[in-house]
Amino acid sequence: MHPLLQTHTTFTALHTDNMSSNSNQITEGTYTIKNVSTGTVMDLYDGLAAEGTQIQGFKGHGGDNQKWHLKYTGNGHSLTLQNVKSGTYLSFSAIKNSTRVVGSRTARNIVLVSSKNGYVMETAEKREYVLDLKESNPANETPVIIYNDNNTDNQKWHFIPA
């Protein structure tokens, strides 16, 4: 394992809906990230390392392209997600509605916010925008996009230790 990934830092995610602080601790580590609405997981298309490879919802199969290293940046609650198979980071080219989330050599920071049903992943630069499984579609290869936070379950995610 890479030495930088061996640190075990725990941060308490920002929380809403009056959750207790014990229920919302996420430790740096490797996770499968499951959408609350559909049950599909965040998947890097074929685990490709090519710049701009789509991040999508897909039925869970346990492959390394569906596992993500969560690492806090040291800047507040900001974190990055790095795909286990490709080594690329979760990223996006703009912070506006319907921008596709992709794999990239350049990481973009996100902030976890706990809610009653899971975690919302806000863009660190514009907190009103979040990661969204497009149209709550359970089909394989449904894009993960950036969208205004509208408090729906397709914008909420469970972090399952991998």
Report on this structure.
It comes from Rhizoctonia solani. InterPro entries: Ricin_B-like_lectins, Ricin_B_lectin. Residues 26-101 form the Ricin B lectin domain. The protein has 162 residues and is an all-beta fold. The chain has a single domain (8-161), classed as Trefoil (Acidic Fibroblast Growth Factor, subunit A). Helix content is 0%, strand content 46%. The chain has strands at 10-12, 14-15, 25-27, 29-35, 41-44, 53-58, 68-72, 78-83, 89-92, 99-104, 110-115, 118-123, 129-133, 142-148, 157-161. The radius of gyration is 14 Å and the shape is globular.
Q: Could you give the distance between the termini?
A: 14 Å
**Overall pLDDT confidence:** 89
Total number of helical segments?
0
- The amount of beta strand, in percent, is over 45%
Domain Ricin B lectin: 26-101
Protein name: Ricin B lectin domain-containing protein
List keywords for this structure.
mainly beta; Trefoil (Acidic Fibroblast Growth Factor, subunit A); 7-stranded mixed sheet; 6-stranded antiparallel sheet; 15 strands; globular; Ricin_B-like_lectins; Ricin B lectin domain-containing protein; Ricin_B_lectin
